[in-house]
Structure formats: C-alpha cells, structure tokens
Amino acid sequence: MVEAFENVLLVAFLHVPPPGALKLWSAAFDEEPTGYQTPPPGLSPIHNQALVQGNVDGYAVTLGVQSARVDINISAPNPTQPMVPPPSVGDLQTAIDFAIARMAKLLPNLKVGRAAMVVQGHTATESDEKSIEVIRGWLPTLKIPDQSTDVTYQVTVPRASTVRDGRLINQLCRWQSVQMQMIQFQIGTAMPSKPVSGAFVAVVYIDVFGKDLEVMDDEAALAALKEVSERAAILASGGINELS
User: Fold this and answer.
1) Domain that holds residue 78
2) Distant-in-sequence, close-in-space partners of 164: CB < 8 Å, separation ≥ 6
3) How many whole angstroms separate alpha carbon 77 and alpha carbon 200?
4) Can you tell me the distance from the alpha carbon of 117 to that of 113, in angstroms, rounded to the nearest whole number?
5) Is 67 exposed, middle or buried (0-12, 13-18, 19+ CB in 10 A)?
6) Could you give the number of structural domains in the chain?
7) How far apart are CA 120 and CA 132, in angstroms?
8) Which has the closest alpha carbon to 239: 163, 132, 137, 109?
9) Tens-place pLDDT, residues 117-139
10) pTM for the predicted model, two decimal places
C-alpha cells in the first residue's frame, strides 16, 4: 500500500499551439493566480513553457503551457518549510478527478491529439533496507537479492485503448528505493552545503500515455484523458499485478 501521493500531472498534447497561459487559467479556474512565470527568450518551442500558479480547492496548482502541450500539475499546498518527503495531496482519486474536471474546461480552447497522466507516491521508512522490503511487497513476483542496498525496477507495457479502436496506450511503471535529503546552501561563505533533513522512502512512479497523435474532438479528448487517468490510478494503487 502506497502511504501518500504527492503529485498528479495531467497532460494534453496538442496539434496546434494553445491560447496564452493566463487565458487558459481564467477558463479553468475562478481563483486568481498567485504566480506567473514566462520563459526566458531564446528557448526552442519545445522548452518554451509559461507557468501559472495558484491555490485552488486545497491544492497547489501549476498550469504549464507550451506550444505542443498543456499541463495541470496538482500537489499539496506549499508548506512554510520544505518537507522531506513531500506532503500528500490526500485522496488520489479526488485529486485525479479535480485535474480532469479542470482540463475539461479547457478542451474548447485546445486541439488535443493525445493524453497522459503521471502519478508519483511514496511510503516513508526508517532505512534503505526497510524501503526495499516495501518494494518487495509491491512487487511480489520479482526476485530481489537479499543483499540489495538499493532497488530500481521499471517496466513499460502497451495496452489496447478501450476508447479508441486500433490505438495503444503505454503504461510506464517505476518502483524505487530512495534516500531524500533537504540541502542547506551556505550562501556567501566558504562553507559547503549540508543536509538539514532527510528520509528513506519507497517511491512509485506511474506514467500512462497515448502513443499516437491523432485528431480528436472534445468528447474523444475527454474520454482519452479519463482513460489514461483511470489506468494510472489503478496501477498506482494496485501495483504490478494490475499491468495488462
């Protein structure tokens, strides 16, 4: 069982460039943004991303807009002091439903070609060894040597789409033991940076995405967004046994 999910990312990949980031924010959210970041000049279109941030319904929301994609990134509200591991968004399905509902408001402004959902979660432990034990529970059919000091296991499994005939979606799943650290930088001194807090965690990362860019109307685009989101939720909670 995954203890906490700290990040939910819903992505719409586009055929044509979208409207401006602030216009899209106004279409998706009633709340005023708390931050707006434009990309520096000279970047290629693929890296030319504008970011709008705000607090909505108890979530920290970042809307990312590029020429070929729009992202809605959901995380917990930023704490006064950074936390290791990151705080949870709460119930995973509720966060996913929130992201889908807000992206649905944008569909009349977008020409969506495919969709993706990324979910990341963790279970905090007391040591690397304990993290590996957690991963053994998540991956019961995988033989992990007893002497292992860290583990990363990744698999990508294609699956026939249930909403688009003849199309595939990819299911990328990664399970990993990690030691997270919060670093304090000694600005303006000769002192090196030093860790001020840390945690051992077992991490699960799920990325479910459409393989082929195709023309979709708003109804088909919403169905595609829901499909990748549903699969991501199932894999994040059910683990490797849900891969098919």
Assistant:
1) 4-242
2) 214, 220, 223, 224
3) 22
4) 14
5) middle
6) 1
7) 17
8) 137
9) 999 999 999 999 999 999 999 99
10) 0.90
